[in-house]
Amino acid sequence: MFEAVEGYLSEHDELEGRLAAPETHADARLAKQLNRRYSELSAIIGAWREWLRLGEDLEAARELAGEDPGFAAEADALAAQVPVAEERLRRLLVPRDPADHKDVLVEVKSGEGGEESALFAADLLRMYTRYAERRGWSVEILDATESDLGGYKSVTAAVKARGAGAEPGSAPYGVLKFEGGVHRVQRVPVTESQGRVHTSAAGVLVVPEAEQVEVSIDDNDLRIDVYRSSGPGGQSVNTTDSAVRITHVPTGIVASCQNEKSQLQNKDQAMRILRARLLAAAQEQADAAASEVRRSQVRTVDRSERIRTYNFPENRISDHRTGYKAYNLDQVLDGDLQPVVDSCIETDLAAQLAALED
Description:
Layout: H1 4-20, H2 28-65, H3 70-92, E1 104-110, H4 115-135, E2 137-146, E3 152-161, H5 172-176, E4 181-187, E5 198-208, E6 222-227, E7 243-248, E8 253-257, H6 263-286, H7 292-295, E9 306-311, E10 316-319, E11 325-326, H8 329-333, H9 338-357
Parallel strand pairs: 4-9
Antiparallel strand pairs: 1-3, 1-5, 2-3, 4-5, 6-7, 7-8, 9-10, 10-11
């Protein structure tokens, strides 16, 4: 497995030369891509060289320990460091999802359960919002359709890392991509008069946000419909055709927005959503393997396809993919989501490492 590092040395040298050339930085997007790859390779090569150094030092210390017992303690210390360095290198060699560095769009949809499902969708959005605040990310609601009791039939939010150049593993998509799927809730609904526990579900869809240059959209391929907004809002709601629905005719992908006051603002927001959805669709078609996570996300919001259960009577959260279970559901819904996310990241990493070794 570690032999692959030697092949990265020439690529690293080549990138170093390209990044030193002034013409590279004339194209900001290219320079950013090359810098990201250069940083990834630098980390791998640095870890590889540290692993080699520790191995050589351990071999030397063991040889000297036969002549001088004082080196025995040093050999023991180095022997403990080698597997740590080896594990770090193994993790760095796992191929990165090309979208891990991106910001993300999170869409939460109510499913089976009516109003209770819509209220649970609002709980999930609040959980992601508070978790994002803990990570120093910003959250912007792009589109929302509320239910009668203040939940969400559907809501789409953009989650962004503040500042440029977020590293893989710390950017929103690299962390939140495992949230895609059906989330099941077990609790007594506010509409339940006899105190019985009901089960309902909400679906979460997670896609990386596309930069405008990444998706080419021909205006002739778009059908734009305007209509009157519905639901709570300002004075313009229900009086002007400010809501916008955009259909990408070749693919049938639709995006809509009615949250903003003006038709132009709603069109801009809808285009952001459409662009991200088109990028996700293109990536699925181009690379079936890389889209495995997306394909596993919610198709129908069916309780039987759940990835996670939120049990209120027991204050328990269970992730059915990783086996993670904890009895601090109230804290998780308040944004303490990191241990759950870590269990997903570790499970995915372990599966990829096993595949590499095979």
